[in-house]
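Chains adopt folds. We examine one example:
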Amino acid sequence: MPVDKMVDLSGRQMRRLPVHICSFRELVKLYLSDNNLNHLPPELEQLQNLQILALDFNNFKALPLVVCTLKQLCILYLGNNKLCSLPLELRLLQNLKTLWIESNCLQYLPEVVCELSLLKTLHAGSNALRSLPAQLQCLQELRTIWLSGNLLSEFPPVLLDMPFLEVIDVDRNSIRFFPSLAHLPGLKLVIYDHNPCRNAPKVARGVRRVGRWSEETPEPRKRSGAVIEIPLNEKPLLPPAAKTEPEAEPC
């Protein structure tokens, strides 16, 4: 049994997990990233003290059900596999706080994720998600959601009903319009770059935005249906008597 209760077998090009690893019953961290694994031995269930399990960068087409027996898991890395869904048994991992499922083949966010009541961080970028389930608002502990590189054509409405969110990342999607996020009291950061949007999301004071027309760049002014970007240092000075239409308050 390792003194630090950790085993790191990452990058070994393994096709099978050595079964003797499962005899380390006090193991807390097990890193199996960057191998050629597509299944796990049933003996893994013996690791009931495991809190961190890294299975990212492997060849899993389905999550081995034995993973769902590890009820002390707090962090589960499943990114960069070939997962198209997640089993209903995932709901048994009620201590899970961080879930990485980025860079898989998910066309929808499995609703079982919405049953992980202690989840604080969800990494679901680089999939093929087009929407999010309404049940996501049940995750009242969720603080950070990463959705970059999906197929979202609109800002997910369910996120507007999650006032406890602190970080929202919808970078590299197909969102054309952003609703106001100013009513989300917990929000600290919103990343919306690389979308074909015509506006920036309005946010409350002190919230950082990353994307076009963020704090560093003003939103464009519309004239006669055209969008004209005016740099801050090139705004023309108007004569004193000229009347101008009031500009929209900055986001």
Q: What stands out?
A: The chain has no helices and twelve strands. Confidence is low (pLDDT under 50) at residues 216-251.
